[in-house]
Amino acid sequence: MITARAAATFEPVGRSVATARSFVRDTLQGWGFADIVDDAVVLTSELVTNAVVHAGTAADVLCLRSDDGVRIEVADRYPEREVPLQSAAVNMGHPDREGGRGLQLCAALAGRWGVEYTPTHKQVWFQLDLPERPVGTRAAGPTLPADLLPLADARVRVAVVQIDRGGSITAWNEDAEELFGYAAEQVTGKPLTDLAAWPHTPGTGTGVAEALRLSRWEGSYGIRGADGRVTPVYASHLRVRDTAGDPSTVCLLVRDHERAVLQTPLRGPAPDASTGQDGQTTDPFEVFIGSPAPDDLDGLLQRTVERARDMLDGDAAFLLLATDDETELEVRASTGLPSARQRFARVPVEAGPGRYGSARMPAVHDDLTAVPGAVPLLSGTGMRSVVTVPLKVEGRLTGSLGVAAEAATRYSNEEALRLQFAADRIALAVESARLGELERLRRGSLSFLVEASDLLAGTLDRDQTLALMAQMTIPTLATWCAVYTIADQASEPYLSYVLHEDEERIDGVKALLSKIAPPEPIPTPGARIWTAPGEAAHQAALRTSMRSLGLGEAPALSSGIGTTLATASAVGGETVVLPLVARNRVIGMLTLGKPTDEHFRQEILELAEDLSRRAALALDNARLYSERTAISQSLQRSLLPPELPHVDGVEVEVIYRAAGEGNEVGGDFYDLFPIRDGAYGFAIGDVCGTGPEAAAVTGLARHALRLLAREGFGGPAVLERLNSAILDEGARSRFLTLLYGELWPQEDGSALLKVVCAGHPLPLRLRQDGSVEPAAEPQPLLGVMEDLDLYEQTVTLDPGDVLLCVTDGVTERREGTRMLGDDGLADVLTTCTGLTAGAVAARIMRAVERFASDAPSDDMAILAMRVPGLPKD
After folding, report:
1. Which residues of 622-649 are buried (b: 16+ CB within 10 A; e: fewer)?
2. What is the spatial distance between Cα 540 and Cα 536, in angstroms, rounded to a whole number?
3. What are phi and psi of 380, to 5 degrees?
4. Which of 2, 113, 491, 592 gives 487 a disulfide partner, CB atoms 3.0 to 4.6 angstroms apart?
5. In Å, how far from its chain's centre is CA 526?
């Protein structure tokens, strides 16, 4: 039965893929389906990509919630697409390949999936089922005689107290009022720590605040009542969250002698540790962990260290998990130690020679002060004796479990055997939970990299690429990030971008990094530790603190001790550097950092390495694009004539449009230049084709025209020599249409022109009466025949006349089967009587642009010359 639905439509543009992913993620998290979010996002991403990118249609996404899972439907408007039939094993291809994997991923990840067709739509759907959760009996005991049952009062009262994320009481039931003497209004809003009498153990860091943040907790403590007396209670805590996502803790409390009401029953070991007194088999794992066991890795590890510490009556306990290559151990859970400082810290498996230097064998240290550094994790904690045992699965080291005490010589081989027995019972469960977490992380990483690749591929702007690179890492991978770039092999790394999850810390981090030497640009793949930021932050904080106490030099004008200490805290944790390598060259470094005493998980570093490879290629592509664009624009600008000269007695206006994105020059060209006193040369031409090859012939023609005209050659001689130069180019030559002329303004206000029209659209003359006529006769084009017999024609422009010269990009402007043509151009020109040269050129260009809606496919040039006549007295 469908219990909820959410739908959205996404336009056929690239950014819709990321928007669809966010829509599905937000919808499923709002429904409480966090277990299947990553799979749903990956599948939706592939199917929406197929629709909006490859099929080029809008995509309709529909999410349907039911009691046992969720169904997501993605529909496009391209029903002709076929379902790929697979008779052999599916080849998923490279994970970086875009598209083509949607149906294959459905088959791999979804419980059920299918494709449905209609005359106008194709719909792909998939069903993701919720993970099975255990139901039914969790614990049971035998039937006992009445005199053996636990003792309780006539009425058992269970106090229900709810604590918000800040540790304050938000709910207090009637049984709590009866047990402790406070009315609800007296305690609501007060911290539980004001009432709790917590049993502190020397050297133990876990207190009531830490216990309230655990997902589950059971144990004994006291509640100070209204009469001042402490009532011993047994408590069961459960961490929950409301529909808005805010966490809180529900505490169930009974009098300590009634603990049987809440206490999780433990099945004690029989003599053989596997069979109960009634002969039934017990689970050694549950004997140690208790039932119910936590269903998440962190909860399982935390329960393990707490039980291990209690079993050996220790002051602290810790559990480390091995990396995939078994060379390092990563701290994942601890009790009685500063867990925030130690979490995800790494130590080597082989810390020294011999049995006691390896995590692969059990070890007992009677006094750590006699062997400093034997257990690096305990340095500076006050612990003196420790016992550690390995966790192994099928002979492979998967972790290490240790218990420590503040007193010396607390443990012997007997305790090591007991702890090893427990470790052997939980190793398989821990490894299974770890593999499950790794699988979830892998799927989350895949979704993250898919989205990152989309974003990085969507821009070729260097600055935007740098910003995206940093924004994608914060806060998913790190707390702060800095990107260094290297212009060339001889350049030093330059700090290009800094980002912190707290915007107020960005300036402080940037100032700190600018004062220290950048990391070495080493091309070795993988993350490496960089200690310089942490050391510099520590020194800056120390100097600032000493100055504030009057123990150093007078403080200079600065942002103050608060800002300095905040910056030191922000960058005081672990910092790693990943090289940005593209095309076998280091083009920069990606620096990721954590705040004080925090470390990176190995999985996060591996994900950051994958991201750095994609980011490096995107950054280098942006650099190459910028460089080539700059070179292309510089070369193209060199082919354009300089600023047009002023011609006395003649108005001149030019409009030029090169076809193609990023092109400033194409196959069309124009020029106007002085030849000698009182004489000017002008030209407008069109080289066959567009792009760089046509632009090369454009440069040859324009420069040759100027050189030959200034040598005194007439129009026909100039074009004949240019024809020979074009033919000398051989295979690179291209034919050229050219209108060339010489202009002499006259004293009577008219202008004399001598023109040669070599295969070019004929120039049009507009008279003052509105009539339009060709001003030249057609002659052979250039670059085809060796022997040309060209001649020039003389034209006199009277005051008010206009000479319009265009390239065929104007006359051949098309809209479907219609073409503007010479007649259409003449019709537009007849409406330009009395306009200036600039107004004539602008009206012609507007008419051309309005003739068709599509972008021009050919270069266009317009040269308009008008003789205004002599000014009136």
Report:
1. bbeeeeeeeebeeebeebbbeeeeebeb
2. 6
3. 80, 10
4. 491
5. 19
Question: For position 343, what pLDDT does the model report?
Answer: 61
| Rounded mean pLDDT, 416-421 | 86
Give 289-347 pLDDT, tens digit per residue. 665 667 678 888 888 888 888 888 888 889 888 877 777 888 888 888 765 445 666 77
Three-class secondary structure of residue 529 per DSSP: strand
Question: 40-51 burial, b if ≥16 CB within 10 A, otherwise e?
Answer: bbbbbbbbbbbb
Question: What is the distance between the alpha carbons of residues 196 and 208, in angstroms, rounded to a whole number?
Answer: 8
Q: Which of 227, 410, 390, 238 is nearest to 319 (CA)?
A: 390
Listed residue (191, 231, 186) closest to 208, CA to CA: 191
Cis peptide leading into residue 292 (ω within 30°): yes
Give alpha helix (H) positions in 494-601.
506-514, 532-548, 561-571
Mean pLDDT of the chain: 80
Q: Which of 855, 847, 858, 842 is nearest to 820 (CA)?
A: 847
Computed on alpha carbons and rounded to an integer, the radius of gyration of the chain in Å comes to 41
Give the residues across from 674 on adjacent strands.
Answer: 680
Q: Could you give the maximum distance between any two Cα atoms of the chain, in Å? A: 135
Distance of CA 338 to the CA centre of its chain: 33
Q: Are 108 and 95 in contact (CB under 8 A)?
A: no
Reduce the DSSP state of residue 391 to 3 states and report it.
strand
User: C-alpha distances in angstroms, 640 versus 635, 643, 676, 837?
Assistant: 9, 9, 21, 21
SS3 288: helix
In Å, what is the CA distance from 579 to each residue of 146, 479, 523, 608, 682?
72, 19, 6, 11, 56
Two tokens at 525? Answer: 């793949």
228: left (phi over 0), alpha (psi -120 to 50) or beta: left
Residue 866 clears pLDDT 90, i.e. is over it: yes
Instruction: Give the DSSP letter of residue 842.
Output: H
For 626-658, write each residue's pLDDT tens digit: 777 777 767 666 667 778 888 988 999 999 887
Comparing 540 with 817, the larger pLDDT belongs to: 817
- Listed in sequence order, the residues at least 6 apart from 292 whose beta carbon sits closer than 8 Å to its beta carbon are 134, 138, 139, 264
Three-state DSSP at 287 gives helix
Residue with tokens 């819709």: 16
729 CB contacts (<8 Å, ≥6 apart)? 697, 700
d(Cα 596, Cα 753) in Å, to the nearest integer? Answer: 82
Residue 526, SS3 per DSSP: coil
Give the DSSP H/E element, type plus range, for residue 41: helix 37-49
Find the mean pLDDT for residues 725-732. 79
The pLDDT of residue 278 is above 50: no
* Inter-CA distances, 258 with 211, 226, 234, 314, Å: 21, 21, 8, 27
Pairwise CA distance, residues 632 & 843, whole Å: 31
Is-contact 308 335, C-beta < 8 A? no
Q: Which of 343, 383, 380, 339 is nearest to 365 (CA)?
A: 383
Please count the helices (runs of H) and the strands (runs of E) in the chain.
20, 34
Query: How many C-beta atoms lie closer than 10 Å to residue 713's C-beta?
Result: 14
| Strands 764-766 and 772-774, bridge-based pairing | antiparallel
Q: Contact, 317 vs 334, CB < 8 A?
A: yes
- DSSP label at 316? E
Instruction: Look at residue 201 in the predicted model and tell me its pLDDT.
Output: 43
pTM above 0.70, yes or no: no
Across 336-427, where does the E strand assignment appear? 346-348, 363-365, 385-393, 396-405
Residue 144 phi/psi, 5-degree rounding, is -115, 155
Interstrand relation of 480-485 and 818-819 (parallel, antiparallel or unpaired): unpaired
C-alpha to C-alpha distance for 364 and 384, rounded to whole angstroms: 11
Report residue 841's pLDDT band, with 50, 70 and 90 as the boundaries. Answer: very high
Q: Do 710 and 675 meet the contact criterion of CB atoms below 8 Å apart?
A: yes
Distances (CA, A) of 826 to 739, 756, 807: 18, 20, 14
